[in-house]
Structure formats: C-alpha cells, structure tokens
Amino acid sequence: MSDLDERDGASRPTLHGEREGWGTHRDGGVVWRQGLPEDIARLHELWDEQERRFAGTGVKVDRPDLTRAPTLAVRVAERAGKIVGFYHVEAVAELCLVTGDEEVMRSLAPEMAKLSHWLKANGVRTGWGLAPKKFAASMGRFLRKFPPIRKWTAFEIFGVDFTELGD
Question: Per-domain residue ranges for the chain?
C-alpha cells in the first residue's frame, strides 16, 4: 500500500488542523491513518465503550479536546472501513530537577504550585517526573508538602527513550 491515503488530499486537515507526516499504514486487516474531523462521532462512541470496559478500575478514561493543543496527533485504526480504535498523542510536561541541595528540595512545593498553574493556563493537562528508587523516601516527604503531585498507583510506567531509535 502507498505511504499516502488516496482519500487524503494535501489540504485535508487532521483533527488538530495540521497534516501528519507518516501517511497510512496497513498491518493485516487493520489500516492506520490520520484522524479527520468527520471521525469525531465514532471516536466518542469508542470512548464510551472504553468507559464501560474501565468501570470499577478506578482509572478515568481521558477525553481531551482532540482538535487543539496539547493534542499533537490522532491516529485511527480501521478494519473493513470501520474505525475500531484510535490513539491520540499529547504533549506532557516532564519535570527534570537537577540539584543535590536539600534546601532547594525543601523550597520546591511553592515553586511547583506556580509551575502547575502556569502549565494548566497554557493548555497542558498532565505532567510527570521520574525519580530513581534510591530517592523514593525523600520524594515521599516532598509529596506530602505538595499534594497535587502524587504517585499514580493505578498505572504502571511504560516508555520509549527516542534516543535509542538512532538517526
């Protein structure tokens, strides 16, 4: 199959209003393509189905506005011409603190409050940071001082280090 979807003309906007650069991909009976404005009703149906699957898990189904930042891309999976799944990619604030100074650590709570409000005002919905297990106890003390930041117990962390992909 071609790298481009024949239905997808050069001026066709995605849900986010910009063209994605990686075209259409077929894997067996599933075709992945960019999400389009006319897909939104079906995407909401899939979200409804996801909420029923997640019922009782304590995990809220995320429903961001797919048409604006921080959504970067929406990709839909079709089988036999019907959308059967999708994913959205969203910019997330990742905090990387560089210090060994205990006073800096003790002063972080009000700074994180200001940062959190600034990020929210600028359209960012979630943020995260990773801490080595070695520092878990000191992070626990910090988290008690700034309750909006907390360990997410309903999730496991998975990730990709894009530097490992090469050039």
Answer: 25-90, 93-165
Contact 54, 11 (CB under 8 A): no
* pLDDT given at position 17: 61
User: How far apart (Å, rounded) are the C-alpha atoms in residues 15 and 66?
Assistant: 6
Report the distance separating Cα 142 and Cα 55, nearest Å: 32
Strand pairing category for 82-90 and 71-79: antiparallel
Give CA separation, 33 vs 80, 99, 160, in Å: 13, 43, 22
Whole-model pTM?
0.68
DSSP state of 149: S
Please check the confidence at residue 110 and state whether its pLDDT lies above 60.
yes
